[in-house]
Amino acid sequence: MQNDEIINKINQLLVDEIEIDADKISPAADLKKDLEIDSLDFVDLFVIIERNFGVKMKAEEMTEIKSLQDFYDYIIKRVSSN
Amino acid sequence: MRRVVITGMGIYSVLGKNLADVKDSLYHGRSGIILDHKRKELGFRSALTGMVERPVLKGVLDRRMRVGMPVQGEYAYMATLEALKNAGIDQDFLNRNEVGILYGNDSSALPVVESVDILRKEKDTMLIGSGYIFQSMNSTVSMNLSVIFRLRGINFTVSGACASGSHAIGIGYLLIKDGLQDMIICGGAQEINPESTASFDALNAFSLRESEPAKASRPFDRDRDGLVPSGGAASIIIESYESAKKRGANILAEVVGYGFSSNGEHISLPNIDGPARAMQQSLKAAGMSSSEIDYINAHATSTPAGDGNEAQAIFQVFGKDMPLVSSTKSMTGHEMWMGGASEIIYSTLMMNNNFIAPNINFENPDPATACLNLATVTTPHEIKAFLSNSFGFGGTNSSLVVRKTSF
Q1: Which of B197, B91, B80, B183 shows the shortest CA–CA distance to B141?
Q2: Arithmetic mean of pLDDT, B155-175
Q3: Sign of CA dihedral B93, B95, B96, B100
Q4: Do residue B137 and residue B273 come from a single domain?
Q5: Is residue B105 located within the same domain as residue B21?
Q6: d(CA B121, CA B45)
Q7: Across the interface, do B62 and A43 touch by the CB < 8 Å criterion?
Q8: Are residues B154 and B278 in the same domain?
Q9: Are strands B385-392 and B295-297 parallel, antiparallel or unpaired?
């Protein structure tokens, strides 16, 4: 999967599955403050990412992920190492 | 001791998804029972069930509010929305006042089954998601509604088997009477699915009259052969008379007595003594004599033993003063954890519209039920006060007396 395909897919899942307002999606958006993704939403993201990318996110790796760009980079890295 | 009034009602039932439709169904003696073929494929003895379609809440509630709610929570949300609107209560009132919730519920089987199925398949709990734990608990309805409506008063679920909804109203009534709360959302909710009823079907408790679903639930009738499971949700707003008067609320009825008892005998077969004591206690609490009751909404679920024993208990308490009796379960089926609350709504609709809904499908009495004064057709009747019975597994009994207000 190409990087921009991954990014587009992540954005689509955030809008369709987590029901985030599409207007709020931007790489600089803070996941918690701007996108209002809370700890329970992260639990659902784990499931959504596993089902769509075959990647099992690790809770301990989430602490460094603050922005949507950080999240794109993390998923891209995990997909390419699979 | 304060007086406790009902100022709002809301219903999501197999008879209708709002008060007007339900009133119409009650008046016309309409059944909400169907045949669910999926149950036959699964291996049920009886595929009969009440049915109401699931509400569509996407676009109404945000995802976080929806994801932790099981289907009976959705029903309860719809019923509570109508009840609050009926009571003239908006979110601003709920924000400014301490309003509680006491809801009857005694299962949440489907979410447990679904989440464990995921675990067994995936061998990884990280694939279960965030919603199932909240959906799976018995307190799921009160839990979810207190968050959605931002309630800040009493907050828990009452589990008393098929008397859950009635006990929830009874406890709410006691709290308000004693000055501990001004307003409480009370109700009962019941999931409708094979997962929650399979082990009940295992008791051979359900009617097998699959050839005529609308005639299968026949409380008190000689040829009754078992109950029909059903569900949905019902909510009422109860508050102190002072609170109702202060905000200019329209008072629908007054809760005047709550009687309760336990049979102390068999886990599933009811007796006569326990229900009789609950009825007597509710009359005593109301300060009323049996002759002042104009209508009894019976628990009667269309089981051979249960209906007969309740008939005997009613006769023991009311004797020659027996008012008209009907079991609305003849139309709804057995709404289980919802029933105690929905039947207060059905009876209040009757009281405020001067009719008694029929105990449909009654063709012949048997020796135990012959003593009853049954309304077998829709009967125009003035009801000044009614008594509603709900009895459950484990011998839990609840009787509520409600009357037209005298304010």
Answers
A1: B80
A2: 98
A3: positive
A4: no
A5: yes
A6: 28
A7: no
A8: no
A9: parallel
With CB atoms and an 8 Å threshold, state whether B127 touches A40: no
* Spatial distance between the Cα atoms of A19 and B64, rounded to a whole number of angstroms: 9
Predicted confidence at residue B407, as pLDDT, reads: 63
ipTM above 0.85, yes or no: yes
Average pLDDT over all residues of chain B? 97
* Interchain contact, B129 vs A43, CB within 8 Å: yes
Please name the residue of chain B whose CA is at the shortest distance from the CA of residue A45: B129
Q: Is the Cβ of B130 closer than 8 Å to some Cβ of chain A?
A: yes
Percent of chain B surpassing pLDDT 90: 99
Q: Is residue B150 part of a domain?
A: yes
The rounded distance, in Å, linking the Cα atoms of B156 and B167 is 12
Are the beta carbons of B126 and A56 separated by less than 8 Å? Answer: yes
Q: Is residue B269 part of a domain?
A: yes
pLDDT at A60 over 90: no
How far from chain centre, in Å, is Cα A20?
12
- At B315, the pLDDT band (50, 70, 90 cuts) reads very high
What residues make up the domain containing B14?
4-246
Per-residue pLDDT at A58 exceeds 90: no
What is the pLDDT at residue A59? 84
Residues B136 and B227 both lie in one domain: yes
Q: Give the tens place of pLDDT for each residue, B100-150.
A: 999 999 999 999 999 999 999 999 999 999 999 999 999 999 999 999 999
Answer with the one of B218, B246, B274 that is the final residue of a domain.
Answer: B246
Among B246, B280, B305, residue at a domain's last position: B246
**A10-24, A53-67, B173-187: range with lowest mean pLDDT:** A53-67
Residue B31 to residue B330: CA distance in whole angstroms: 7
For residue B51, give the CATH number of its domain. Answer: 3.40.47.10
* Torsion on CA atoms B258, B264, B269, B273, rounded to nearest 10: -60
Distances (CA, A) of A26 to A2, A14, A22, A30, A66: 19, 11, 9, 9, 13
Q: Is residue B251 part of a domain?
A: no
Predicted confidence at residue A38, as pLDDT, reads 93
The pLDDT confidence band at residue B242, using thresholds 50, 70 and 90, is very high
Domains of chain A: residue spans and CATH: 3-81 (1.10.1200.10)
Q: Residue B252 domain-assigned?
A: no
Judged by CB atoms within 8 Å, which residues 59-78 of A form the interface with B?
none
Tell me: do B141 and B263 sit in the same domain: no
A14 and B CB contact within 8 Å: no
Q: Which residues of B are catalytic?
A: 162, 299, 334
Q: Are residues B395 and B360 in the same domain?
A: yes
Question: Does residue B102 sit in the same domain as residue B126?
Answer: yes
* Minimum distance, in Å, between the CA of residue A78 and any CA atom of chain B: 17
The answer to whether the CB atoms of B64 and A41 lie below 8 A apart is yes
Higher pLDDT, B35 or A81: B35
Chain B contact set for A51 (CB, 8 A) = 127
Percentage of residues in chain B having pLDDT higher than 70: 100
Number of domains in chain B: 2
Nearest to B398, CA basis, from B406, B407, B388: B388
